[in-house]
């Protein structure tokens, strides 16, 4: 054994022992503190009870309760922090660290070694045995260079020289192997990480983050970041690592509540849900734009399935094109003084078929609001007056003899139902109070209608603004509404009815950004004017009719002197060399070649069949080559998916899905079906093929009926 290895093993043993020691002391401390906490709690409850029962000076006892509450809070914080630290230590015990750098700070001192792991860890003398991968010094490890290098600490650049960079493969206290950057040119640790089988859940890439990914993870200097990265270049991984990085480095400013992830579909949310918890961080809000819009929309928006079917169509109507135009969003925002035709603008407020407040009355209230105010303020004014007028009406009615008689004649059950107890006092004053309570309950729906703007026909606003912008009449029945309509309706609500209150997001991260319409992006920008946006996507995967070119996204975000920083990722980590080469051929950006990292593997295999009934046979043939491994069958449309699915029962190793819903996901072995001449013809089809191919990690099979699409002719050579 070399001296170096002996030294490394010694360091690992020592660190591991320290970790074990900390684990033991911390667990004991937690147990003890929890135990003494329980007796403290029961004593506190006892004290409080005694005080409240026995002391006449209530103020004094309240301040004591307050003090005790603070004690309990502090106790809970102590326990929580202890548990978090124990969690980290236990994670480190699985794999204490994965990297080391020896840094010369270009001063008189000897070069210093830093070990990099998932979390920071120091011994009882406060010596740092492991540095968190997100700490400033760790940047030097990810820079992946020897000799001159630098890192940033609070905006200052520290120049250094790297003497040594080492990667470790460690399991608990066993040093399996290590590699020095200067010795190995290819990154064996990365290659073995990439050789993994597909997983149901995405995994973190902390130990093998690459230099170009590290820049994206750590760049906090820009408000808007736009990453155009080829398939499998680690965009999603970089987003997740970036969130962990931000939560760590800005822990005094933000928590996971200040972060929003917008994901392409529900399956994808599930797929990435383990990454942050495995890094010791809480998952932030992660939703699709459809879910996000539904949260703020009072009515049903189309389902995810319908949405994907709709955006997978070859063409869109002229009407929809207007709805997707960011200029329409601007138009809505810039017309807030618009006078709408009032004949259909207001609706009666009804209770059981009876007119409670007529539309004429509401219109009059509206006319009394100042004409030179923005529409939203006028509507808010009407709402306030409706609420106070309605309130007055209930109060007046509660004083009448008729309603007092009704209160008195309530059965006991009804009294319980309306008041939660029986009427004990039947004085005039008390009856009035009960009557008011009764009326409020009875007419709850009226108050709700006022609060929910049921008296305002928001579709009229929509139609009139649409006509104003497009010069044409909107004809589609909005039921259920599409996401495109919802985005416009919500924008209208925000500027004309009631401001949408958004949680104050510090960071918004958008995955598959190429699939968003300009209107959707503009809408997000309006709702989150103070947030930093990180947007990642791939123009080659713009397979939906909603897509926006990156150039346009950049222009859209280049507002108020804000800069959009763009990055390009060209290295692909997911697929074998042969599969990467196959989808590189389909890439539309011919001036940049995709660089595969993984070994060549086997070439994609073409399989011809003559009619759909042979598909079962094709699948059986593929399965026989896979030696018991799982196979994912990809098809272009939902319709095909429904048909093909019926060929297999649930137990087989075959999983069928459409390319639309496979976005962002990856599979060991893929069989793409029906890559036939008649089925794939357009540029969009070329992107669909690119997306489908790039889902495969190890094996790609391409089935086609009768003749292969000319888009794949290069595979036959
Ligand atoms: N630095 C890395 N170390 C180890 N694995 C990596 C690294 N970068 C990416 N990967 C792996 O490569 C695969 C693709 O990564 P990811 O899904 O983040 O890429 P993507 O650019 O979002 O892909 P796509 O756009 O095609 O959906 C994943 O399995 C991921 O774990």
TrEMBL record:
EC class (word): hydrolase
Keyword ATP-binding on entry: yes
GO molecular function, one term: DNA helicase activity
Keywords from the named record: ATP-binding, Helicase, Hydrolase, Nucleotide-binding
UvrD-like helicase ATP-binding domain span: 208-576
Gene3D superfamilies: P-loop containing nucleotide triphosphate hydrolases
Alphabetical list of InterPro entries matching this protein: DNA_helicase_UvrD/REP (IPR000212), P-loop_NTPase (IPR027417), UvrD-like_ATP-bd (IPR014016), UvrD-like_helicase_C (IPR027785)
Residues involved in ATP binding: 229-236
Record PROSITE patterns: UVRD_HELICASE_ATP_BIND (PS51198)
Keyword Flavoprotein: no
EC number(s) recorded for this UniProt protein: 3.6.4.12
Highest taxon of source: Bacteria
PANTHER family registered for this protein in UniProt: DNA HELICASE IV, UVRD / RECB / PCRA DNA HELICASE FAMILY MEMBER
Name of the protein in question: DNA helicase IV
Gene designation: helD
């Amino acid at each position: 054994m070399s001296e170096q290895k002996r030294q490394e093993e010694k360091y690992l043993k020592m660190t591991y022992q320290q970790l074990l020691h900390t684990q033991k002391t911390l667990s004991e401390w937690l147990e003890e503190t929890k135990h003494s906490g329980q007796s403290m709690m029961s004593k506190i409850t006892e004290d409080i009870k005694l005080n409240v029962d026995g002391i006449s000076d209530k103020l004094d006892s309240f301040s004591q309760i307050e003090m005790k509450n603070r004690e309990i809070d502090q106790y809970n914080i102590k326990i929580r922090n202890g548990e978090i630290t124990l969690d980290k230590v236990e994670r480190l015990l699985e794999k204490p660290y994965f990297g080391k750098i020896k840094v010369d700070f270009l001063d008189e001192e000897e070069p210093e070694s830093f070990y990099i792991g998932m979390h920071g860890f120091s011994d009882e003398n406060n010596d740092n045995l492991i540095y968190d991968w997100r700490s400033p010094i760790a940047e030097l490890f990810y820079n992946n260079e020897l000799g001159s290098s630098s890192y940033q600490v609070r905006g200052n650049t520290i120049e250094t020289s790297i003497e040594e960079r080492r990667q470790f493969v460690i399991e608990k206290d066993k040093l399996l192997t290590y590699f020095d950057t200067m010795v190995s040119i290819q990154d064996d640790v990365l290659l073995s990480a990439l050789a993994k089988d597909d997983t149901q859940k995405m995994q973190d890439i902390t130990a093998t983050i690459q230099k170009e990914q590290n820049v994206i993870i750590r760049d906090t200097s820009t408000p808007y970041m736009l990453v155009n990265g080829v398939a499998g270049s680690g965009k999603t991984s970089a987003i997740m690592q970036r969130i962990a990085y931000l939560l760590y480095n800005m822990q005094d400013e933000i928590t996971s509540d200040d972060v929003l992830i917008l994901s392409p579909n529900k399956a994808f949310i599930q797929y990435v849900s383990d990454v942050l918890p495995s890094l010791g961080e809480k998952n932030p809000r992660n939703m699709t734009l459809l879910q996000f819009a539904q949260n703020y929309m009072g009515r049903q928006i189309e389902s995810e399935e319908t949405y994907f079917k709709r955006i997978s169509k070859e063409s869109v109507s002229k009407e929809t094109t207007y709805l997707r135009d960011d200029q329409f969003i601007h138009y809505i925002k810039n017309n807030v003084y618009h006078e709408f035709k009032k004949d259909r603008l207001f609706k009666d407020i009804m209770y059981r078929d009876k007119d409670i407040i007529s539309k004429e009355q509401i219109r009059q209230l509206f006319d009394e609001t100042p004409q030179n105010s923005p529409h939203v303020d006028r509507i808010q004014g009407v709402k306030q007056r409706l609420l106070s007028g309605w309130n007055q009406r209930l109060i007046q009615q509660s004083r009448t003899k008729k309603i007092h008689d009704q209160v008195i004649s309530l059965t006991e059950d009804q009294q319980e139902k309306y008041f939660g107890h029986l009427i004990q006092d039947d004085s005039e004053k008390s009856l009035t109070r009960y009557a008011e309570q009764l009326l409020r309950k009875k007419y709850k729906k009226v108050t709700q209608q006022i609060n929910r703007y049921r008296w305002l026909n928001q579709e009229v606003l929509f139609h009139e603004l649409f006509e104003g912008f497009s010069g044409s009449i909107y004809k589609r029945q909005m039921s259920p509404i599409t996401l495109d309509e919802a985005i416009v309706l919500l924008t209208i609500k925000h500027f004309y009815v009631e401001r949408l209150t958004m949680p104050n997001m510090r960071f918004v991260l958008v995955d598959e950004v190429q699939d968003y319409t300009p209107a959707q992006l503009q809408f997000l920008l309006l709702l989150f004017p103070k947030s930093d946006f990180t947007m990642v996507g791939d123009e080659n995967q713009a397979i939906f009719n909603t897509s926006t070119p990156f150039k346009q996204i950049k222009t859209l975000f280049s507002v108020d002197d804000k800069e959009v920083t763009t990055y390009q990722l060209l290295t692909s980590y997911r697929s074998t060399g042969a599969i990467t080469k196959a989808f590189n051929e389909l890439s539309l950006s011919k001036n940049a070649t995709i660089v595969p990292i993984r070994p060549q593997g086997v070439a994609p295999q073409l399989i011809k069949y003559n009619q759909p009934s042979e598909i079962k046979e094709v699948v059986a043939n593929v399965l026989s080559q896979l030696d018991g491994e799982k196979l994912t069958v990809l098809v272009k449309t939902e319709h095909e998916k429904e048909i093909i699915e019926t060929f297999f029962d649930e137990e087989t190793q075959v999983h069928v899905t459409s390319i639309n819903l496979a976005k962002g996901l990856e599979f060991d072995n893929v069989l793409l079906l029906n890559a036939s001449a008649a089925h794939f013809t357009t540029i969009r089809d070329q992107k669909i093929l690119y997306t489908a191919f790039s889902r495969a990690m190890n094996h790609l099979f391409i089935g086609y009926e009768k003749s292969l699409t000319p888009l794949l002719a290069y595979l036959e050579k």
